[in-house]
Amino acid sequence: MPTAAVVFNPTKVEREDLANVIDPAAAAAGWDESVWLETAEDDPGAGMAREAVEKGCDVVIAVGGDGTIRAVSEGLRGSGVPLALCPQGTGNLLARNLNMTLDNLAESVDAAFNGVPRKVDLGIATWSRPGGRQEEQGFVVMAGMGLDAEIMSTTDEDLKDKVGMLAYVKSGAEAIRNTHRMRLIFQFDNDRPRRAKVHTVIVGNCGSIGNNVLLLPDAAVDDGLLDVVAVRPQGLWGWVRVGWKVLVDNAILRRTDSNLVRQNRDRDRQLSYQQCRTMELTFRDPQEIELDGDHFGEVLAVRMQVEPGGLTVQMPAGWTPDPDEEPAAKETPPDSAAVQESPPVDGRGLDPAEQAAAAAEAAELNKEWD
Ligand SMILES: [Mg+2]
Fold first, then answer.
1. CA of 183: how far to CAs of 195, 242, 274, 297, 368, in Å?
2. Tally of CA atoms within 13 A in the half-sphere of 143 that contains its CB
3. How does pLDDT run across 251-304, given as a tens digit for each residue?
4. Among 55, 61, 127, 160, which has the minimal tally of Cβ within 10 Å of its Cβ?
């Protein structure tokens, strides 16, 4: 008989409450008694997921928030053992990006036993610490460096529990007040290295950050590509424009694929988008990094990669790929000419005034870096 493992955080959810739903569902589907594995303070789920794989479990039910889902996904990496999501708490970004139920435990559990396995990509971040130590971690939604990671590290946990996304807005406003910018050299795939000075770099495996906010409008969870956005707003008005782009333009772009909006977006140098398979980042000074909302401290260099189909997720019974929602895997390498981070040398597509501004900014970037 097949067996499920249940990985759960005993400080957040009662085993008995879970068992009341999971045990009858397993029995009804003809599965063996489940293996129960509790997360610990020093291991939010990766070790438990590996243990479940070693024990030969056929599905791992992860009950928890984004941190638990990230850790369990990391533990399941490359094993082929499917992950069933039972969302808890405020974020649940993977479940949101996959359009899954967020607050119906019975439905989530049903997907574990009767659902459809679906291969999705896994993001892999390999970094060097300031002391030289190398570490590797997986992520399922987004990795952030710079301001984004600072927000994650300063957001009040209690406040986050009570007001959800508003806590991020509060600490975001605080972080914006300090005009922190990081200087870095970055390289997409086999492109040439470029230097930049930005507030935040976000590398996404999927595009939604919840509440209908689509940060990376072209991102798909199974296209074998990472979607990157570099944010470098100029002053307060710049943040307003960035907010508008993310909240309004990206929503329009996703729905209508409007060329006009896309052209405007591609010309907006406060928010630069790029798709890639790998991205190398080297920082001049140590920078905070976060993966799926969990803070991992300071790093000096990071290599971001995508492992296509590196994770299998149980979708609800009857799920089929939606041809409109799920673009087919892209065979051609991403077009690196679309990078706007370094101002184009020949000023292609810019009018003379913009061209002059771009040249001045390029000179400024170089000056500030040295
Ligand atoms: Mg992708």
1. 7, 20, 18, 17, 9
2. 29
3. 666 666 566 566 655 555 667 889 999 999 999 999 989 998 888 999 999 999
4. 55
Query: Given this chain, do its domains 4-114 and 123-309+327-339 carry the same CATH topology?
Result: no
| The token pair that represents 364 in the structure block | 């400024």
* CATH level 3 topology of 123-309+327-339: Tumour Suppressor Smad4 (2.60.200)
The CA distance from 134 to 51, in Å, is 24
Distance (angstroms) between ligand 1 centre and the Cα of 369 equals 31
CA of residue 333 to ligand 1 center, whole Å: 13
List Cβ neighbours of 229 (8 Å cut-off, separation of 6 or more).
201, 202, 204, 215, 216, 271, 272, 273, 274
pLDDT at position 337: 40
Q: How far does residue 298's CA lie from ligand 1's centre (Å)? A: 25
Domain parsing of the chain, residue ranges: 4-114, 123-309+327-339
Q: Is 54 exposed, middle or buried (0-12, 13-18, 19+ CB in 10 A)?
A: exposed
Count CA atoms closer than 13 A to 136's CA, side-chain side: 11
Distance CA 229, CA 181 (A): 15
Q: Which fold has domain 4-114?
A: Rossmann fold (3.40.50)
Q: Read out DSSP for 227-264? A: EEEEE---HHHHHHHHHHIIIIIHHHHHHH--HHHHHH
- Residue 301 and residue 28: Cα distance in Å, rounded? 50
Is 5:37 a contact under the CB 8 Å cutoff?
yes
Q: How many angstroms is it from 255 CA to the middle of ligand 1? A: 18
- Gap between the Cα atoms of 230 and 192, Å rounded: 17
Tokens of 285: 């000074």
pTM of the model: 0.79
CB 69 within 8 A of CB 97: no
